[in-house]
Sequence to fold (244 residues):
Amino acid sequence: MSLDEKGNQTDRGQKPEKHSGQGNTAHHMISQDTLRKVWNAMNGLEAREHQQRYLEVIGFGSHGDIDRVLAAADAQTVLQMGQLTRDQLDSSLSWQDFNLFQGPANQFRPPHSPDPKGPGEIVKFFEKWNVTFDFPIVGPPHGRRAKTLFDASLVYRQFIEAASKGSPSRNEMLRLREAIESVSSVSHLPIIPRHDVNWFAVSQPLFVIMSPKQRQELMRQYHDAPRDAKPDANDLARQIIKST
Fold:
């Protein structure tokens, strides 16, 4: 179990089967470490209104499920929720579809591909671009989502730090609530498909003009090429654009 008796997350959370697969996995934009710590900070402060809205935004169960979670937290024991509910909560806190994008697992990623491992290693790239393009994720339509989540992650981290020092101020609690509300604007979106991610370091102008079908073909051809004879990604992209 990844939740202790007070409802705090103790590790990375239950990973749903749909987010696994040989050679392909789901990567986070807001890091799992930040997601765990912001929930635990709210839980430790007994910020129930914030927790309630947070659970609504991440799509955890029904209002009845949320009420049971918060009632159990007030009683300082999550054990009464039952194993199934605990697992569902644990998974929801760590694996929110709108915060995920597909891509190769570490052992299958090409040498020049961006490395998503480690807290904040992907999300730090988002601040370099406006809402129309983010590295390594192409946009639109994904740019606004990435920027929204990046901005929310900054507020989450500030709140985590404030909570670690004592009671956050009223303004800090207000900023947290505003960040949660901003995330609600993208919370209906599915996982970003792997072909919309610039895993092969194609130049920005070239990758942006490729259609989804062309990016899928790029991924297929690059993946199918022999490991010791991978083509130049930019040359391959130009060939695909020219031939389709």
The longest strand covers residues 25-28.
